[in-house]
Amino acid sequence: MTGIMIVTGASRGIGAAIARKAAVSGYAVAVNYHRSAAAAEAVVADILTAGGRAVALCADISRSEEAARLFAEVDRELGAPDVLVNNAGMIGAPTPIEAASAAHLADVFAANVLSMFFCCREATLRMSCRRGGNGGTIINMSSVAARHGGLPNEAHYAASKGAIDSLTLALAKELGPQGIRVNAVRPGLIDTAIHDAHGGRAAIDALAPGVPLGRAGTAEEVADSVMWLVSSAAAYVHGALVDVSGGR
């Protein structure tokens, strides 16, 4: 398994786990981050120490021009991408619907949804067989919150992930004929810092007994599913929404 992979939001958590596993599998990895430069450089250092190839690239991909710049930098530093993993996103502060504000919703949907549109656009420009590309694979990071509504006061998050599911299904129809496979991974309760938005460790421990498998998942378990989806073993998996949720 060789090629070039872009992982957005790869400085920590699920994104960092994907970047590390991709490097072990032979990918040159673009480790995208927005604010966490030191953490992103640490991921790159781990990859380089293990004999892999990686670069850390800063870009706020919720902005169209920043997403375009990220891909241009990847072109220069590594080459045209074979795989895009749209992992970047946020939960946003828990907010009841009666307190919903335009600013809060704009922030969440820009980070979670617009970023994926912009990055999928840039990936398609490079991957599409109709444009002279060699095809490729796109993985969108959704959430099981898209189907069960998420935690209390997180309608904004669940709705943004529902949009990602719809985007994935639409792009599977649009891009399949262009040689690009598109799938989504929907994590459940995963033991990462993203849960700091609603209680951190205490929240994870409180929710874990309600998972049929009786525990939270790990970032590495989600990364394993992503690596399967980008492999030849999943060559006929297209337009799928793959739950990694312990049955929740």
From TrEMBL:
The species this protein was found in: Bradyrhizobium algeriense
The protein's name: NAD(P)-dependent dehydrogenase (Short-subunit alcohol dehydrogenase family)
UniProtKB keywords: Oxidoreductase
Entries under InterPro entries matching the protein: NAD(P)-bd_dom_sf, Sc_DH/Rdtase_CS, SDR_fam
Similarity-based family: Belongs to the short-chain dehydrogenases/reductases (SDR) family.
